[in-house]
Amino acid sequence: MTIQFWIIVLYICVLFAISIYVKRRAGNSSGFLFAGRKLTTPLVAANIAGTAIGAAATIGVAENAFQSGIAAGWYNGAWAAGAVMMAFVAAKKYRELNCTTVPELFERYYDKKGRVIAVLGMLTIQLVITSLQYLAGGAILSSLLPDIFSFQGGMVTSAAVFIGTTILGGLWSSGLSNILSVSLIYVGVLISTITIVNNQGGIGAIAASLPPGVDWFGPVGGLGLATVIGWFVVMMTQAITAQGPVQVACAAKDGAAAKKGFLWGALLMFPIGFACAIMGVAARAAHPEMKATLALPYMIMSLDPVISGLTLAALWAADVATACHILLAAGTLFSQDIYKRFINPNVSDKKYTLLNRYAILFLGAVTLWFAFNAVGIVKTMLIGLSLTTAFTLIFLFTMFAPGLCRKNSAFYTTLAGIVTLFVWQAFPAVQIFAHPIYMEWLVCLVTFFIVAVVDKQPIRMAAPQEEEANGTYQS
Asked: What total number of domains does the chain contain?
């Protein structure tokens, strides 16, 4: 067996050891889903950085850079901007409101149907994101150990580890694993980038080997300014209301830890994108016929076995951390906003914790099917995240301009966002913007203000937290 094989086996053992250890610490449902709301600033930072530095921010960035240049690294820059936005606008508010999900918040202020449509939209987002982690996991394992894993076999193995560690350890497992993963990613990716550039004779030699027609090292490369700006709009939109970041903010020990953690997380995630982008461009120069998705794993595998093994295992562990977190978010949405709210409000805490584990198992299997049908990691990710536009718009107006909100604002604005994304995908003729996020904001804003004019029922200005615990919402 190769050195890389034993490194990946050791990684799997460490991940499961962490999950088994924290299983006792997680205890009740609050510990499993929200780490007992005790995450310190470093753990918040590690969690949000680990959530960001997953498939799209590593394998996906290199895939994009292989085609469009190092400007692909702006994807991570956009994620960092989103984390900063979350820190200053929403992280502290979520923690102080003591909520669990955005759909729950919608029902506090709006009505039941607003919660229902929000949870359906958010579950879709979580499933799409998780499926992309499997895709990247398959690329890494099949490149790392081609004699053992096919691309599809790597996806199945990744899914088994992602689902298994999440079921065991919950958010505590994600937090502790992310500290290890982010540390190793920094060491592995930076060493690999420097080594690959030196091996190919420096940036100048790489540039000379690239095909003409693309500004490989330009600020927007072959992407275009509208696309890069679109990334920033998407990531700054999703960071405020996607369940993953919201769950991290809600799990912080207090509002200050939530805010500081997101700021530190932004600093951690920013550089990795450009490092991966440089390796993607180097792969294009050295192996122009290669499959773009395999660009980063292939380049790293050309290095010293120990360096390549550690780096690829770290990238795979990052996918584990991201997938675990997003799977946990999806399970929370189902258990909290569907089962506990509408099916069994009086479920015991022990049964509720078990239900979350079963939900994660089922949703993990669904996302594996999605993974076998996904194409283009970053493209698919950004389209899915565009759906958070309606949620973010409603959240911002609710928190900062409640006088414009009406009882039906959440439902109709979210419905408009879902329909817009469906129309964008189904009818290419309507794609008059560079990215669906622009159309999402336009349609959702217009819908929100139409409802503000037509609907005369104001929202509830108070959002008593006891209602959620007792299941006694008034519609």
From this structure: 1
On whether the CB atoms of residues 361 and 120 are closer than 8 A, the answer is no
With respect to residue 261, please indicate whether it lies within any of the assigned structural domains. Answer: yes
475: pLDDT strictly greater than 70: no
pLDDT in tens, 109-135: 999 999 999 998 888 888 877 777 787
Residue 197: exposure state from Cβ atoms within 10 A (0-12, 13-18, ≥19): middle
Q: 45 is in which domain, residue-wise?
A: 3-386
Does residue 401 form part of some domain? no
Residue 453, CB-side half-sphere exposure with 13 Å CA sphere: 5
pTM for the full predicted model? 0.83
Q: How far apart are CA 297 and CA 59, in angstroms?
A: 8
Query: What CATH code is carried by the domain that includes residue 302?
Result: 1.20.1730.10
**Domain assignment present for 464:** no
Which residues are paired to 252 by β-bridges?
Answer: 39
For residues 261 and 178, give the distance between their C-alpha atoms in angstroms, rounded to a whole number.
13
435 inside domain: no
- 406: β partners: 458
Q: For residue 267, what are its two tokens?
A: 């600093």
- CB–CB of 293/139 below 8 Å? yes
